[in-house]
Design brief:
Blueprint lengths: L22 H4 L8 E3 L2 E3 L5 E4 L2 H4 L8 H13 L11 H13 L4 E7 L2 H18 L7 E5 L8 H6 L3 H4 L9 E4 L5 H4 L10 H15 L4 E6 L15 H12 L2 E5 L13 H5 L5 E4 L11 E6 H7 L19 H16 L2 H17 L7 E7 L2 E6 L9 H11 L2 E2 L1 E3 L2 E4 L7 H17 L1
Parallel strand pairs: 3-13, 5-6, 5-7, 7-8, 8-9
Antiparallel strand pairs: 1-2, 2-3, 4-10, 9-10, 11-12, 12-15, 14-15
Length: about 450
């Protein structure tokens, strides 16, 4: 193919089976983008689309940042690939050092993967291995949560709690239980930041699972600090703190899936720092490389690392890994991305703009059909009631209007989810909000 810029979509669309997409419907009326820069995508027709979801929660520093582009280009010309199975290359080690330096205190090791899904499965296996090495190999059960998303691997899907994503794949991992979700619109609708009601009550459901399963059989609890894909469910006050207390009481590891909340989304390097609760393992991906090269990882607390390192010398401490763990291009992109975050002050920028963001999104409270608004940091969800006359979901119709009006927003169920780049300004925030308002009036 001579058109290496790929500015024109191909005539044949059948071969590529797109993920999480009704392919037959989409290909009857496809939507394409061919370029991106800063806050915007560009369509084949040259129309600019403001990216209000950072690609897919990942392009936190804006698209095609020149520092990141050049780092990838340079690394590809120097070392395109090297396995991390008993062979090292400098970029992976340098990034591990830089990443752990900004991680929460007591997280001094990282295991690299190729995606958020791989990071979650890695964390679950780390939890099982930790207990096994300590002589508690009977701790094999896992606890997830309803309405949670933890990727598409068998481990992550087992602890996840979104029914339509699980229904075709059988029983998945045995011995998995689920906490109730924390969405309580009767008491917490239109909360700003952490909702005030129900935190300890929702968390105390873990004691019921412990009583039913016996604590000695449970390895770990995994939650998203803020549940993203299901519609930005913010943890109620006291919820994460109580989960930490219960896990400590019964010897369970606590895993935070920070694939969405990592890298500045809540105004700090990691959501656990912003929310003031430390887990034992932290899954990360997405904003790790600004979405430019696939990468994921698990930050490992000293407690877990010391447990695995207690094995005899010469032992492979964790019998696990991926072909692309610590890939040179991913490591180079991640190093450049972290430098951009730090040198441009994007984590602080996110914290500063969070209040104007909150005010703007909550101004939609009186828009037609809006039943709830949730926000924290630079995340938000606008929830809608059913469409009049039982038509298509209102949120989906509003998202379609927004795209045609020059703003990319994601609809999930009855909610629009928003996660703009960290450098967003008040003008772009105003454009997003007013475009949603116009779509709500027409849906």
């Amino acid at each position: 193919m001579n058109d290496l810029a790929f500015d024109t979509p191909p005539n044949a669309l059948d071969a590529f089976w797109m993920p999480f997409t009704p392919n037959r419907t989409w290909k009857q009326d496809p939507r394409f983008v061919t370029r991106a820069k800063g806050m915007h995508y560009v369509t084949p027709e040259g129309r600019k689309i403001l990216d209000a979801i950072s690609g897919l929660w990942c392009v936190n520093a804006g698209h095609c940042h020149p520092r990141i582009v050049e780092a990838i280009r340079t690394q590809a010309g120097q070392l395109d690939y090297a396995s991390s199975f008993g062979l090292g290359h400098p970029a992976a080690f340098e990034y591990a050092n830089r990443l752990t330096a900004v991680a929460p205190d007591g997280f001094n090791h990282v295991f690299f993967a190729g995606s958020g899904s791989e990071a979650v499965d890695t964390a679950l296996k780390l939890a099982l291995a930790y207990h096994s090495v300590r002589g508690e190999g009977q701790r094999v059960k896992l606890v997830g949560r309803q309405r949670s998303y933890h990727g598409v691997g068998f481990g992550g899907l087992s602890v996840a709690g979104i029914g339509p994503q699980r229904k075709h794949f059988g029983p998945l991992l045995a011995g998995t239980s689920h906490l109730p979700h924390t969405h309580d619109p009767a008491r917490n609708a239109f909360s700003r930041g952490r909702p005030p009601h129900g935190g300890t009550d929702f968390a105390d459901a873990l004691e019921g699972i412990v009583a039913a399963q016996d604590a000695s059989t449970i390895a770990a609890v995994i939650v998203e600090p803020v549940a993203g894909s299901t519609g930005v469910l913010v943890p109620p006050a006291g919820y994460l703190e109580r989960l930490r207390e219960i896990c400590d009481r019964h010897g369970l590891l606590l895993i935070f899936d920070e694939v969405v909340t990592g890298f500045g989304r809540l105004g700090a390097p990691f959501g656990s720092q912003a929310l003031g609760v430390l887990p034992d393992l932290i899954c990360c991906a997405k904003g790790m490389t600004n979405g430019a090269v696939p990468m994921g990882g698990v930050l490992i607390s000293d407690r877990v690392a010391e447990g695995l390192n207690a094995q005899p010398d010469g032992t492979t401490e964790f019998m696990h890994g991926y072909t692309y763990s610590g890939h040179p291009l991913a490591a180079a992109a991640a190093l450049a991305t972290l430098e951009v975050y730090q040198e441009e002050g994007l984590f602080q920028r996110a914290a500063e703009i969070a209040t104007p963001w909150e005010e703007a999104v909550h101004s939609l409270r009186d828009a037609p059909g809006v039943t709830d608004i949730r926000n924290i940091g630079l995340l938000a969800a606008i929830e809608f009631g059913p469409a009049a006359g039982g038509g298509p979901a209102r949120a989906k119709a509003v998202a379609a209007h927004c795209f045609e009006s020059g703003v990319l927003i994601r609809a999930t169920g009855d909610s629009l989810v928003l996660s703009p780049p960290l450098g967003i300004g008040k003008d772009e925030i105003g454009q997003i909000v007013e475009t949603i308002r116009g779509g709500a009036a027409r849906a």
